[in-house]
Amino acid sequence: MRFLFFVLILAAAIAFLVVRMLQRRRDVEVLDPKGRRRLPDVLGDARRFLSLALLGLFLLLLIPASIRLVPVGHALVIFNTLTRSFRLAGQGVTLIVPFITDTEMYDLRRLEYTMTRNMGEGRKSNVDDSLWSPTQEGLQVGIDLTVWHHLDPSRVIGIHKGIGPDYEEKIIRPAVRSVIRLVISEYAVMDVYSSRRAKIQDEINVKIKQLVQKDGFIVDEVVLRDVRFTDDFAKAIEAKQIAQQSAEQMKYVLEKEQREAERKEIEATGRARAIQTINEALRQNPNYIRYLYVDKLSDKIAVIVSDQNTIMDLKGVLDSRNH
Hints:
Elements: H1 2-27, H2 42-66, E1 67-70, E2 74-80, E3 85-89, E4 92-95, E5 101-107, E6 111-115, E7 131-134, E8 140-151, H3 156-162, H4 167-184, H5 189-193, H6 197-213, E9 217-229, H7 231-284, H8 288-296, E10 303-305, E11 311-313, H9 314-322
């Protein structure tokens, strides 16, 4: 938009100069050698006007072909078709030789390449672009991921010469797919689903960085967004989890019953020892049974032991006499 504004300003300036020149031409009185007034040279003026118009048109065509505006965070590869030489221009306004120069713009900022099944997301947003890979057991797992990457500025010309601007489809995508399949195939399916997922992601990062770095691509991070299984395996996992929960519940019940049995056994052992102690005391002192009986009586009963076979409630007898 700014460039178009600049071209319009230049065209207006050229038109203004042409008009001023013609005005000055008409205002000047020209005399011949005999002092007579010379008539205006209409044909010559038309030729000059046409020449200036062609010059203005040429400039209007030349200026856009000679200027390139490189946005912030980008680089422009410039190839001279005559000298067969390359050069790289940074952000800002760059002048080039028109008509014999080919240019290609490259984004040096961090880029995102997402492969997912979610419609409307990722580089291929209209299809299921998730990556399916076999595990160590041969089971298929689906992986959604995002790759953050950027170009090495010092390698842009080499990338342009050897690969081209569609480097994501030629290098990044195949490298990611290859490494994912290689790494996932070394792990069991439950490893991918469990806490070892972080270790798998780290290994994927290391291998992808090593694979693409030699071509001038820098991978900042590979993030596993989602891991999923086939419908049949997901149902099997769900059934297994239900069975595990049932087993845990049964284990809890059995442990509870075992603890209760152990408690009863301990209680019975204690009672047996108590009975054994009482029996031993009775063998040594037969009157110990009377002591235990009296000890269990209410505190309100006044007890008199008259002989070995009689126990009297003295308080009860007294109360009856008072009434």
